[in-house]
Structure to design on (278 residues):
């Protein structure tokens, strides 16, 4: 099992979805990313994100990267 | 979704390699046992020698001796001994048995690697380590087997061939096997990079 690299990036996807009344499934369909990957992101298990995915998320959620990710602590 | 042809081919090859590994072990056991059973009263050796002889027959120690040597013009010789011990029997079988066991180990490692590839996870787990072990085993075999064969031949028939002013022709280093070992080491390095890349993209969305 590979050693997980430590990071303090927190993803606020679930909060943004709730604020916009959008489901994960709808978001996945809209931006063309699988629900599995969005779930990985939502549950803080992602280790990296493509810029193309980040752009699509920000467009769909009408937000900026800083709204989606913050660094804790 | 139908299983891709390449996956089925790899899966079938995996099963085939397991079968060959079993055969290699059985052969390693069968050959000496058969020799022991089929020629209980004498020990036979045949091989190339390093002194050219016309066709000749020698009874080492005189007529009716327990050791007979037959030389052929093509540089081969056949030794038949009836004064052997069970240790001589075991030694005579050793190179073949060792080759069978080495072949079995290599085939099993290769089968495991192919199964991982068939399952779509080629770089997972012990793939890199398995390749390095496979390379090391092949390299060691390329050095050990010729040396062992020479040592056993000298022990079993050295004295007999001496009487005909000959000695067992030394087995050359298995250069092709050394080449295979080098290729396997290179493949292990490539797999290590693959494993590292796979770790880097794990969790990438």
């Amino acid at each position: 099992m590979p050693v997980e690299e430590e990071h303090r990036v927190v993803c606020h996807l679930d909060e943004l979805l709730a604020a916009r009344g959008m489901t994960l499934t709808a978001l996945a369909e809209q931006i063309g990313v699988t629900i599995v990957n969005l779930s990985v992101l939502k549950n803080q298990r992602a280790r990296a994100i493509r810029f193309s995915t980040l752009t699509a998320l920000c467009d769909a959620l009408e937000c900026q990267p800083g709204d989606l990710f913050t660094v804790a602590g | 979704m139908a299983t891709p042809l390449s996956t089925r081919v790899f899966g079938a090859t995996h099963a085939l390699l397991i079968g060959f590994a079993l055969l290699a072990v059985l052969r390693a056991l069968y050959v000496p046992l058969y020799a022991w059973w089929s020629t209980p009263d004498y020990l036979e050796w045949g091989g190339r020698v390093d002194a050219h002889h016309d066709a000749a027959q020698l009874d080492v120690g005189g007529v009716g001796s327990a050791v007979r040597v037959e030389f052929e013009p093509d540089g081969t010789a056949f030794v038949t001994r009836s004064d052997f011990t069970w240790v001589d029997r075991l030694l005579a079988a050793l190179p073949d048995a060792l080759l069978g066991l080495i072949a079995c180990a290599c085939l099993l490692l290769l089968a495991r690697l192919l199964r991982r590839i068939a399952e779509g996870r080629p770089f997972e787990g012990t793939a890199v380590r398995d390749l390095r072990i496979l390379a090391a085993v092949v390299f060691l075999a390329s050095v050990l087997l010729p040396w062992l064969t020479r040592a056993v031949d000298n022990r079993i028939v050295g004295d007999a061939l001496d009487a005909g002013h000959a000695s067992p022709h030394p087995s050359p280093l298995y250069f092709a096997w050394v080449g295979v070992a080098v290729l396997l080491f290179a493949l292990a390095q490539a797999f290590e990079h693959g494993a590292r890349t796979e770790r880097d993209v794990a969790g990438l969305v």
Summary: Chain B touches chain A through seven residues (CB under 8 Å). The CA atoms of residues 113 and 127 of chain B lie 6 Å apart. Chain B is about 65% helix and 10% strand.
